[in-house]
Specification:
By secondary structure, this protein is an all-alpha fold. It contains two helices and no strands.
């Protein structure tokens, strides 16, 4: 009775081996195709990241150029304002002129009296 059971199991194992031998090449091919597909997907993601990074770098460069232009304009305006005289400078010039004019008038009046 035990021999009959072992005989049946041997037949089943032989059939399983035959099936596995036939499927082994197909399984290997499927695994390789899947690996190639995964590599392709990974490569596509890398290309997409590079494209996005390139776009970000282009935008960053444009923003830096615009910022440099604005800084140039601001420094030009700042230079113009710094070249203008301040209120104290203007008042000093006016008072100095009045003082010199008054001095000249006082000198002329004293000189003409004699």
């Amino acid at each position: 009775m035990l021999e009959a059971r072992v005989g049946k199991l041997e037949e089943k194992v032989d059939r399983i081996e035959a099936i596995l031998l036939r499927l082994e090449s197909k399984i290997t091919e499927t695994l390789l195709t899947g690996a190639k597909q995964a590599d392709l997907t990974k490569l596509q993601l890398q290309v997409t990241e590079i494209a996005l990074t390139g776009a970000k770098q282009t935008d960053l460069h444009k923003a830096q150029t615009d910022l440099a232009e604005v800084k140039g304009r601001i420094s030009g305006v700042e230079a113009r304002f710094s070249s203008l005289p301040t209120t104290w400078t203007m008042l000093g010039i006016v008072f100095t002129t009045w003082a010199l004019g008054s001095g000249i008038l006082i000198f002329a009046m004293n000189y003409l009296k004699k």
